[in-house]
Every structure is written in C-alpha cells, then in structure tokens.
TrEMBL record:
Cited PROSITE patterns: HTH_LYSR
Species of the source: Serratia marcescens
Keyword entries, A-Z: DNA-binding, Repressor, Transcription, Transcription regulation
Transcription found in the keyword field: yes
Keyword Transcription listed: yes
Protein name: Gcv operon activator
GO MF term (any one): DNA-binding transcription factor activity
HTH lysR-type domain ranges (all copies): 5-62
Family: Belongs to the LysR transcriptional regulatory family.
Any Gene Ontology biological process: DNA-templated transcription
Length: 289
C-alpha cells in the first residue's frame, strides 16, 4: 500500500486553501497559525511542490496548489461523509450544545447522564463561552441567561436562578452575622462576570459596606465559590451552582431561607429543527422555570 500523507497536513491545507488565510484556517481547526503553517510546509516537503505563494500579510495558491486543493477538498468531504455514515450506522446522532462554563460545570454536566440514559442514541457535544452567542460558531442549541447575549435567537426559558449569601463554617464562627442587612466589617467576594449578584442582594437588603475591608474580586463564579469555601469572605452565588457545597457542609448560608431571583436561563434555538433537537429541548424543559 502506498503511503498516505498525514491527514492533519491535508486538513490544514484544505482549510487554508478554502478560506484563503492561514489564520482563518487556524481558527476553524482550533490550532495556532504557526501550527497550520508547519502542517502545510510538511505537506509541501512530502509532495515536493510549493502550494502557496506567501506574502507579508497574505497567501495565495500556486497553480499546483489550486490543482491539489480540488482533490484535497473532495477527499476531506468524502471522509466527513464516511464519518457521518458510520455514526448513523452506530445509531448515534450528534447534537452540539453551546453553553456557559460555570452553568455547564455545576448544573448541566451532573444532569447529562440522565439525558444519556433516556436518549442513548444522541451524542451530545458541549462547547462553552461567556458573553453573547456567536452565530458563526457551529452549534445546534445554545444556553444563556442574559437577554443581551441571545443574539436574536428564539429563546425558551427553562430554569430560574435564585441566589443566596454563602460562606464557610469557619468564617461564620469567626465573623457572626446578625441580620442580612448588617454586613459591615465583612469582606464581599465579588464576581466580575456577575456584578449583578451583589447589586441585587444590596437592593433587597440595603446595608453599608463602606467601612468594610476592600472586596475580593474574581473573574468567575466557580472561583468565588472556592474563595468562600476557603474562608475569604461572603459571596452571593446562585443556588444552582453551590447546592452540593451546601449539602456537604463545605459552604453554609447564614440565612438559608433568604434568596433573591437573579435570572432565568433560556434555551436558544437556531435553524436546525429535527427530532434530536426536540429531544434535548423537551428534556431541558422538564426543569421549567
């Protein structure tokens, strides 16, 4: 059997030829631009021809590159079709869900086994990012909380978010709290991505924090949960994300009966509308807000 050229080399070349850019190919393949360039140089060395003219800020195909790109495109397309056919034979239908990192870590992943048990024929792929949904990304469904991040997609609310005040047991023993509106002297653990949490708490239970130590500000909710668990202060976090910590005693709430509504998670639908999408959407809606 004749030697087959490396598939990663071929994939990098096909993407760069189709997109007309090494950097665009890198973005599509989740590689660095340097890695794409190295793959293509290796392919050129194997073939013994130059496939691209390389300018200062641009590349273009040589005649040999144009000829080879047609073959490469056909080969990649046929491989993709063969892969899809094999997955269909195996009875696994792929569904790409684009979600939020902390929501995925603390809520979706622990429940996904239940969906897999109900629908073993569906293979769920999950990608995560914060901020507005990028409609150019390949996904079938998205999950977001902030309506400003829906990007014009049809939204189906499915899960309400309530938040509460939490800290470690050792912190509460050292720094007792008499009332939800009496937090002077306490360190507030704030979350850059969720400034609304403390703001909502203070709107509901007004208190003066001016005389308190400087707040500890972290990027993400999971970091704030860890900081509270380590006894670094008080955090306002969604119950969805700290339920296990509370049940295990790693966190406590000084006022467990006091919660504030801080949002609703929505399922965002795009063009794909088939049985697989409906299965996942129906399952999520069993947790209806």
């Amino acid at each position: 059997m004749k030697k087959i050229h490396s598939l990663p080399h071929l994939s990098a070349f096909e993407a760069a030829a189709r997109l007309g850019s090494f950097s665009a190919a890198a973005d599509e393949l989740f590689l660095t631009t340097g890695a794409v360039s190295r793959h293509i140089r290796s392919l050129e060395a194997q073939l013994g021809v130059t496939l691209f003219y390389r300018g200062h800020k641009s590349v273009r195909l040589t005649q040999a590159g144009e000829n080879f790109s047609r073959t490469a495109s056909r080969v990649i397309s046929e491989l993709y079709a063969a892969e899809s056919a094999l997955k269909a034979i195996a009875g696994r239908q792929r569904l790409v869900v684009h979600s939020l990192p902390t929501f995925t870590m603390h809520w979706l992943m622990p429940k996904l086994a239940a969906f897999n048990e109900i629908h073993p024929e569906v293979a769920v792929d999950i990608t995560t990012a914060t901020g507005a949904v990028d409609r150019n990304m390949p996904f079938d469904l998205a999950i977001r909380r902030d309506p400003a991040h829906f990007s014009g997609l049809k939204a189906i609310p499915f899960l309400q978010e309530d938040s509460l005040l939490v800290c470690s047991q050792s912190y509460l023993r050292t720094m007792p709290i008499s009332a939800p509106d009496n937090l002077a002297g306490h360190t507030a653990i704030r979350i850059r991505a969720r400034e609304d949490l403390w703001r909502s708490w203070l709107n509901t239970y007004p208190t003066a924090l001016d005389a308190s130590p400087p707040p500890l500000t972290l990027d993400h909710t999971f970091a704030a949960i860890q900081a509270a668990e380590d006894g670094l202060g008080l955090a306002v976090v969604p119950y969805l994300f700290c339920a296990k910590h509370l049940s295990s005693g790693r966190l406590v709430s000084p006022f467990p009966a006091l919660t504030i509504r801080t949002g609703v998670y929505s399922l965002l639908l795009r063009d794909r509308d088939d049985e697989v999408v409906r299965k996942f959407a129906t399952w999520l809606q069993t947790f209806q807000a």
